[in-house]
Amino acid sequence: MKSVDAHVADILDVVVPLPPRSLPLGSAHGCVLAADLRAGSALPGFDNSAMDGYAVHIADVADAGPERPVTLAVTGDIPAEAGTPSPVARGSAARIMTGAPLPPGADTVVQLEWTDGRMDRVTVTRAPGPGQNIRRAGEDVAVGDLVLPAGRLLGAAQIGLLAALNVATPVVHPRPRVGVLSTGSELVEVGETLGPGQIVDSNSHAVAAAAREAGAQIRRLGGVPDSPDAFATVLAGVLADVDVVITTGGVSVGAFDVVKQVLAGSGKVRFESLAMRPGKPQGFGVIDGVPIFTLPGNPVSALVSFELFVRPALLRMRGLACVHRPTLVATTAQELRSSRGRRSYLRVRLAAAAAGTGRPPVAHLAGGQGSHQLSALAVADALLIVPGDGVDRPAGTELTALRLGGDMPPFDAGTPSHE
Ligand code: AMP
Ligand code: MG
Predict the structure, then answer these.
(1) What's the CATH architecture for 48-135?
(2) What is the pLDDT of residues 190-223, one digit of tens each?
(3) Does the C-beta of 203 come closer than 6 Å to ligand 1?
(4) Which atom of ligand 1 is nearest to the CA of 251?
(5) Topology adopted by domain 327-403
(6) Which of 188, 199, 251 best tests ligand 1's pocket when mutated (most atoms within 8 Å of CB)?
(7) Which candidate among 142, 192, 267, 297 keeps its CA 20 to 30 Å from the CA of 328?
């Protein structure tokens, strides 16, 4: 059986960041910058006031104090608006608002609170320092500064900075478009009435949600019956419109394992047994330039496989350097059996260790560990990794875990949904 790590390495050998595109800011949110961004303009773009107050010559007010008030004629009124203000002469002041351009001649701003606030002539009772309350052009960003390096994920602050620099369409790696389909003649779309032997297609919803959380744009195709023709037709129909295909079901050794039947002979997708539990049967390949992940059908197997194999690939396609979940160390709450030859990913809840002990969190099984038992995964905080070395772990053993969740989406604003 192939190791999980070898399978991840094979996938990441093949998958590359999507070709860069210029996208409007709303669509670029959640994308990764594809090239270094240098400032084409300065921030601030011009000297402006940091306060509501009066723009003056420092020489006129330098000696002002409560006992030595200085009175100046107010010769201008400068709001924050388009235009160039008139100069301020010696012995006079211009009322100025926050963000308004500093008038020529003025070299300091007296804040309103240090004056009597009058409009005809103003009395200053405290002396500002030279240059005080002035935001100088370029003091935040100078022209040519490297403001955001390639590889930077664009969140709210980065989007704001791009807008401030008047960059309307940054060059980013677009989000991967992911086609999700499940196979199984027993499947019924959620909301429909179930007949005997039928189950709801939960996988295509779960995998679509997981891919969306990983920053992808989803095209959910739903369930396809276990008919080679039907599967081949749906697959052929979606390949041209997506960057990745994810299927579930039909990859093990059953009589109607349609995904394997259709794709095994193509030479494009390799079907392998992975040394993991759940999720042993896996397939991965590239068809017409589109990576395809054929995940097993059991709902927990499908999602655990997504975590281990698909999520890193999607993050790589988005141009992210760090594609793996953060790991943590947890202490087992009970004895755990090792499955010889297969690494287990147990669904666990994490409880903080007793305060002050400095011990790692304690991992409790979140519920039934069968690969069909989705309810445990639905309340799990992490996947606890039990090595497949055949050595059982007593309660209190420290093991590595993959933390789940934490990246609730996105990212759907401004991007077309294909659902
Ligand atoms: P398979 O891998 O196709 O043999 O499916 C394994 C198990 O997972 C079977 O019990 C299926 O009924 C179940 N299963 C397969 N696909 C789905 C799906 N889309 N949603 C929920 N359960 C599924
Ligand atoms: Mg099936």
Answers:
(1) Beta Complex (2.170)
(2) 999 999 999 999 999 999 999 999 999 999 999 9
(3) yes
(4) 2
(5) Beta-clip (2.40.340)
(6) 199
(7) 297
* Cβ burial 110-134 (10 Å sphere, 16+ → b, else e): bbbebbeeeeeebebbebbeeebbb
For position 405, what pLDDT does the model report?
Answer: 83
Say whether pTM exceeds 0.85. Answer: yes
Structural domain 21-43+139-173, CATH architecture: Alpha-Beta Complex (3.90)
**Ligand 1 midpoint to CA 89 (Å):** 82
State the average pLDDT over residues 143-156: 98
Q: Answer whether 249 contacts ligand 1 (Cβ < 6 A).
A: yes
> How many C-beta neighbours within 10 Å does residue 300 have?
25
Alpha-helical (H) ranges within 181-286 are 203-213, 228-239, 258-263
Ligand nearest to the CA of 370: 1
Amino acid, res. 301? S
Tokens of 238: 């979606």
Across residues 387-409, what is the average pLDDT? 90
